[in-house]
Amino acid sequence: MKELKYLNKYFLKYKGRLLLGVFITIIATVFKLVVPMKVGDSVTAVKQYLNGEITDIAIVKHELLINILLLLGAALLSAFFTFIMRQTFIVVSRYVEYDLKNEIFQHYEKLSLGFYKQNRTGDLMNRISEDVSKVRMYVGPALMYGITTVTLFIVVISYMFYKAPILTLYAIAPLPILSIAIYKLSVLINQRTTIVQQYLSRLTTFTQESFSGIAVIKAYGIEPRTNTNFEELADGSKVKNIDLAKVQALFFPLMMLLIGVSNILVIYIGGTRYINGQIAEFGTIVEFLIYVNMLTWPVAVVGWITSMIQQAEASQKRINEFLETEPSIQNLVEESTPVDGNIEFNNLSFTYPDTGITALKNVSFTVKPGETLAIIGNTGSGKSTILELIGRLYDVKEEMLKIDNTAIRDLHLEDLRDSIGYVPQDAFLFSDSLRNNIRFGKENASDEEVIEAAKNAAVHKNIIGFKNGYDTVLGERGITLSGGQKQRVSIARAIIKDPQILLFDDCLSAVDTETEEEILQNLHKISKKKTTIIVSHRISSAKNANKIIVLNEGKIIQQGTHNELVNSEGYYKELYAKQLLEKEK
Ligand SMILES: Nc1ncnc2c1ncn2[C@@H]1O[C@H](COP(=O)(O)OP(=O)(O)OP(=O)(O)O)[C@@H](O)[C@H]1O
């Protein structure tokens, strides 16, 4: 229960509703008690008439009528209060589920990129959906049935002892066995359910990947292999589901068996004691039979509740693990720190904490507002890492990276990120309209602004060519757009933000050279007072930059302007010659 203590704050938040729930549960239970009482009284009255203890049939009829009315009233009231009881506990559990999901999601969003690299997306999703659902079972049904059971036990068993103590002992004797058996069965059911869920999630992942990668599957003609793999997984899932069904099938027969034993004991012991005169009223036996049946479900529920709590504890532990994870990148300043965009790398070396790969070694350069820096280099030479550090996705030593002469960690994190327009290498578009995908950079942007940004990113013509224009909804991961179109929508998103620093990570790789030229010219116009960094493999993207640095294995091996670099021996000149040759071919 240690982990579940985390939920106490929610119990406190909804204490009013919960207390009302407890109160209503008690009332509903008391009304439930009236039903067997009145059935017992009715049977006793009939028996007394048959024995000749009551001679006037009118008296018996009158008592039966009163009993029926009371019975009906009590049953209706009990049903009504049971309905209200569900409205309190189950509704609270839904509120808690909602709060907890929001809390987890908001916490996820605060966590640093490293966290997402270390944990699989499926796992993150499972904790926010599956685990929260299991925790809800503790807050809702487990609590509700727990309170109902305790109330019913106290009220019914006390009354039974009051009526016939010895008979009560016999009647309730099999109930603990039932509770333990149901508990054991529930544990088994849970174990098998977990396995079934694991199979299901493997099947879902496989199916999702197959559909996402359908183009590759078709191109390689591996549909038969994919079908076989699916069949194997589905077969495994089927076997585990059958295993689960077998133990589930035991649940009700086991319950019936033990109720049967209790009933036999009540009839036998009750009958014997009535004959011996140890029980005064015949109706007591009938009354007890109803009580035993009334108690059976709550007793079975004890086992179920126990396993529900165990599962919730395990789930809450997994949730707490993430909730207790602190974001490795934290905002350290209170006051607002507007950013001008003077970027300074000072002998910066950086090693990725998770892999230990040293991506940058003694890198130094400066870029000022109004300037464009181009970074050229082989794959894996550390170009993207430079951009990630400017966005403070990772921390470095204070003196190594400054913006506006202030260590990057001394800038307000929100101000820093607000001042950056970042276009990643792998353009990610949401399954939404093109307009909203561009607006993502500026939520309240007008249609004119969206069009202007799209024009600057040289994608406007493509967009208006679509039947629905800016309202074209993109499929999952923007599959309706070509690679180059996706890159340009992603550029438009950064442009519309109108940030002080623009970071382009090899985002023109999929556009032809003419379009590249058009975009670069537009960028030149709009970034007159901004700091721009363009990462590229192409000389054409870099040539007009104020400064170019060439990276190799994390080190700057050349720097200068295009003219300076083409006139000195080295990587840049060779690349230029190679790309010029390719263009002429
Ligand atoms: N998130 C990460 N965690 C650990 N190592 C990383 C991470 N990102 C990059 N690296 C490693 O750091 C090195 C530099 O990578 P980086 O992405 O900066 O290169 P790049 O020059 O941008 O390459 P490309 O042109 O292929 O995009 C590589 O060896 C890479 O494997």
Automatic annotation (TrEMBL):
It comes from the Bacteria. It is found in: Cell membrane. Its main location: membrane. Keywords: ATP-binding, Cell membrane, Membrane, Nucleotide-binding, Transmembrane, Transmembrane helix, Transport. Residues 343-578 form the ABC transporter domain. The chain crosses the membrane at residues 18-35, 64-84, 142-162, 168-189, 250-269, 289-309. This is ABC transporter ATP-binding protein. It holds the Pfam family ABC_membrane. GO terms for molecular function: ABC-type oligopeptide transporter activity; ATP binding; ATP hydrolysis activity. One of its GO terms (cellular component) is plasma membrane. CDD domains: ABC_6TM_TmrB_like. Residues 19-311 form the ABC transmembrane type-1 domain. It is a multi-pass membrane protein.
